[in-house]
Amino acid sequence: MTAPSVPVVGRFAPSPTGAMHLGNARTALLAWLHARALGGRQLLRFEDLDTGRVRPWAYDTTRRDLEWLGLDWDAEYLQSERLDVYADALARLRVAGETYPCTCTRREIQAAIQESAGAPHGHEPVYPGTCRVHPADLDRSAALRWRVPDETVCVRDVLTGKTLCQNLPAEVGDFVLRRNDGVYAYHLAVVVDDARMGVTDVVRGADLWPATPRQVALGRALGYAEPRYLHVPLMTDFRGERLAKRGGAPSVQALREGGEDAGRVLSALARSLDWGPLGWGSPGWALPDEVRAADLLPLWRARLTEAGFFTGSQT
Ligand code: GLU
Questions:
Q1: 289 Cα: distance to centroid of ligand 1 (angstroms)
Q2: pLDDT tens across 140-174, in order?
Q3: Is the minimum distance from the CB of 187 to ligand 1 under 6 angstroms?
Q4: Is 21 in the pocket of ligand 1 (CB under 6 A)?
Q5: Are 103 and 180 in contact (CB under 8 A)?
Q6: CATH superfamily assigned to domain 83-152+165-184
Q7: Model confidence pLDDT, tens digit, residues 183-211
Q8: Which residues have a catalytic role annotated?
Q9: How far lies 175's CA from each of 116, 157, 205, in Å?
């Protein structure tokens, strides 16, 4: 097995907006397995820029949940303590003329989209670039948008083997880097942080896969090295709907405080992936009812081998 040449740095990046549910825990588990299976460092990064949605108790609850599951970390960061880092990155883009202020409201954007050809079917609405052409009145509090390059950006996921190409102007549009209330946008913060924290491997939920080309493009504009991306499936409920903090999904905290055994939860999380080739589908092998996180390391290595991770197809 050839290990990646650069030491691996991974991260788990929860938003402290509520209690972690089992889906969050599964993503945390896989991110941890990945970093540890490769002998790497694992970071815990609280994505807490949207202060209106933050629940102050969620930081400690998340830490306790992770500890209970045996998912340790080497360093912890709070995005809310790193505003100067995002300001620096944004200033670089501003000086290069790559951003512009925008005061369009959601309603104005919708109306402009409808007046033009309309949003392409099945795609997210694309900002029509109103303020690119008619600079915003700076007296009103303005958001800052990134003037996306006229390019098609392709990204390959080293776990799923899928490639996603997006034409930035047509499919993404100029997106917000800082909101009109001064809050730095998720896309800016995540790109800056992954680069500045030396993250080499981004293991995260599949809901963020469509956001990856724009993040890669932004990273390139800032001159950053591109991490590897591994998107893992989202956990769904019996209706096939993804678990959500607001949807009443069972919280890890409730299981922990209710006296559940962490080993059983870990075993159930691993089984729920239904990745036969991970091992327990093969003859003579069964996943015990109780496991420690470290017991799952060989299974993750097997999954990476199956994905061709070690055979050099990844960057
Ligand atoms: N903070 C995001 C979330 O909780 C994850 C962001 C990321 O992994 O890039 O969904």
A1: 29
A2: 689 999 999 999 999 999 999 999 999 999 999 99
A3: no
A4: no
A5: yes
A6: HUPs (3.40.50.620)
A7: 999 999 999 999 999 999 999 999 999 99
A8: 245
A9: 18, 23, 21
